[in-house]
Amino acid sequence: MAALAVTAVAVVLGVAVVWPALHHAVRALTLPLHHADIIRQQAHEKHLDPALIAAVIYTESHFRDRESTAGAEGLMQLLPGTADFIARSSGATRFSLSDLATPQVNIAYGSWYLRYLMNRYDNQPGLAIAAYNGGEANVDQWLRDARARGEPLSIDAIPFPETRAYVRGVLGAQRAYRSQYGAELGPAP
């Protein structure tokens, strides 16, 4: 009986010691977070929720630097034309497409674009995220169509299934990052 009690205590202590590391490993696999320092910096500079930036990166690339089939580059999957627009609009003195492979540049440009879209769409994250994925011209048209019907543009009313799913995915990931990494990411603005 005493041996059973000692074994039970040893198991409980072992689980208590291993659990934090196991929990961290599972979280890193299911909801990875890399470049938190850059995300915090850009969120602060651009007055964005760092969980939103992390959510866009997660949804776009799962924190892997890659090029999409459409030619989008890096962690935040920026198209070359969009990156050129950002470079010219943000006052960059020189820009090369290869710069998008650098996390600092890619996250800075993607965050700049998110702030631009948030400003353009009256700080409505759903619309800004829809434009990040589906393009500003499409969101503008959807807004005109919704206004003509006398209603706001809801996520459910986004005509592109991919963009509708993207907006839901980013907003869900934003909540998950806020919940799982809130202290590490810092406060929302």
How would you characterize this protein structure?
The structure is a single chain. This protein has helices at 2-30, 36-46, 50-61, 80-89, 103-120, 125-134, 136-148, 161-185. It is mainly alpha-helical and 189 residues long. It folds into two domains: 1-30; 35-185, Lysozyme (Orthogonal Bundle). Helix 6 (125-134) packs across helix 7. It is globular. 30% of the residues are buried. The model is unreliable at 19-27 (pLDDT under 50).
Task: Give a short summary of the structure.
With 189 residues, the chain is an all-alpha fold.
User: What is the total domain count?
Assistant: 2
Strand content: under 5%
The total of beta strands comes to: 0
Based on secondary structure, the structural category is mainly alpha
> Helix and strand succession?
HHHHHHHH
Coarse morphology: globular
In whole angstroms, the N-to-C terminal distance is 57 Å
Mean pLDDT: 89
Biggest beta-sheet profile = none
Q: Per CATH, what is the topology of the largest domain?
A: Lysozyme
Low-confidence stretches: 19-27
Q: How many H/I helices?
A: 8
Q: What is the CATH C-level name of the largest domain? A: Mainly Alpha
Helix content: 55-70%
**Roughly how many Å is the radius of gyration?**
21 Å
Q: Which CATH architecture of the largest domain is right?
A: Orthogonal Bundle
Question: Any descriptors?
Answer:
single chain, 189 residues, mainly alpha, Lysozyme, 2 domains, 8 helices, globular
